[in-house]
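Why do we care about 3D structure at all? Because function follows from shape, and shape follows, mostly, from sequence. That is the central idea of this module. The next example makes it concrete: a single protein chain, its amino acid sequence, and then its structure expressed as tokens.
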Amino acid sequence: MQEINERYSDTLLKYYDAIAERDKLKSGIEKQKNSMEEEIMYLKNKLSSFSDETDWAKWDSEQSLLCHEVVMRIHKHASRGKMPSASELNSLIEVVKQSLPGFYEFLSNPKYAVSDNEMLVCIFTRLHFIPSEIATLLNLTKQRISNMRSGLNKKLFKTKGTKSFTANIYRL
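And the structure:
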């Protein structure tokens, strides 16, 4: 009977120790979480000093889109000089349709008659791909991409040249 009581007491002590350890971890995680939330708020405030009209919901949504698995995989393809598959491009378009519906609807408007490659140039630009990456991904020359950007800037925004194209795309 004494042996059973000892095993019971030992098990009970281990049980309470495990609960205490769990609670300690929860408390530590909460403190860490609160610390990270404070840092995020500090950084957001610092970022807002660069722009008076920051829409944080839009910002968070945009950042999650830029970190989406498909976008990251296509960035990796560009860095390796590879073209994405048709299914990857279709997945990317679907993600953009869901995440940026207004942007996609604007580009899909029949009055602009945006071709498939032009659509991808706009999408890649919105997702922070640089022209040389876009050229690699679409298997086109950098000059062709530059010409497409210029044409799109005129077609969509009535502006000549490519200088303002990226800013115009980000505003959509």
